[in-house]
Amino acid sequence: MAMNLDTATARLRGDYMHIKREPLPYITAEPLPSNILEWHYVIDGPKQSPYEGGCYHGKLVFPADYPFRPPSIYMITPSGRFKTNTRLCLSISDFHPDTWNPAWSVAAILTGLLSFMLEKSPTYGSIDTTDEEKREFAKKSLSFNLKDKIFIELFSDKAGVRHRTRTSKSKTHSKAKALASAAPRSSSPSQALNTCQKTQPPQPLKSSRTKK
User: Region entry Disordered: which residue ranges (predicted)?
Assistant: First the structure.
């Protein structure tokens, strides 16, 4: 068990460093300082989608033998797409260890989650709402998140907290530096990630910051 945990820790450190070097479009992720096996993420609703303007907090819970087994995936913020605090059934989650690929990184997991969020395919843990209802959830999402202590602590910039000092930035830099002893990062999936039900491959996501 100890050896498995060491492997999981090294791999997650590597995934963390990669995300810091190459930030994901629309997605921010941080492990709990006290437990690297629990990560929290925030998805910023992409423009021209029903989630535009929304801020969606969720978590990934990794097993001690990651990357050989997949994580549990949860959405915490009401979105109109997923049930809250419910394990989501995706081929990249612990619902389907048979389809899991140990080469998939945290970045690949979160990218796959966002791709599925933008679709309308049903799965266990999803809900059916109109686009207008999703827009209403988007408007209320930040207010909901501001009641969550973990969200405030891990994503203070998104919470509108502006009192970050040089000391806090230094701590962030030190945290990233401490994780530099990571194991080599595995490659991301070469094909689109499917859900419990077969769906069309998701289209590549483009950041609104990218200039053509």
Answer: 162-212
Q: What is the 3-state secondary structure (H, E, C) of 175-206?
A: HHHHHHHCCCCCCCCCCCCCECCCCCCCCCCC
Secondary structure (3-state) at 1: coil
pLDDT of residue 160: 76
- β-sheet with 55-61: strand ranges across: 27-32, 35-44, 55-61, 72-75
d(CA 189, CA 85): 26
Location of structure tokens 């921010």: 28
Copy the structure tokens of residue 191.
Answer: 């094909």
- The whole-model pTM stands at 0.77
| Residues with catalytic function | 89
Do β-strands 27-32 and 72-75 pair in parallel, antiparallel, or remain unpaired?
unpaired
Domain boundaries, the chain: 2-174
Q: Which amino acid is at 15?
A: D
Determine the angle formed by the axes of helices 166-178 and 2-21, rounding to 10 degrees.
130
CA distance 194 to 112: 8
Note the pLDDT tens digit of each residue in 9-37.
999 999 999 999 999 999 999 999 999 99
The CATH H-level superfamily of 2-174 is: Ubiquitin Conjugating Enzyme (3.10.110.10)
Tens digits of residue pLDDT in 74-98: 999 999 999 999 999 999 999 999 9
Instruction: Please give the structure tokens belonging to residue 137.
Output: 């959830």
Largest CA distance in the chain: 49
Listed in sequence order, the residues at least 6 apart from 3 whose beta carbon sits closer than 8 Å to its beta carbon are none
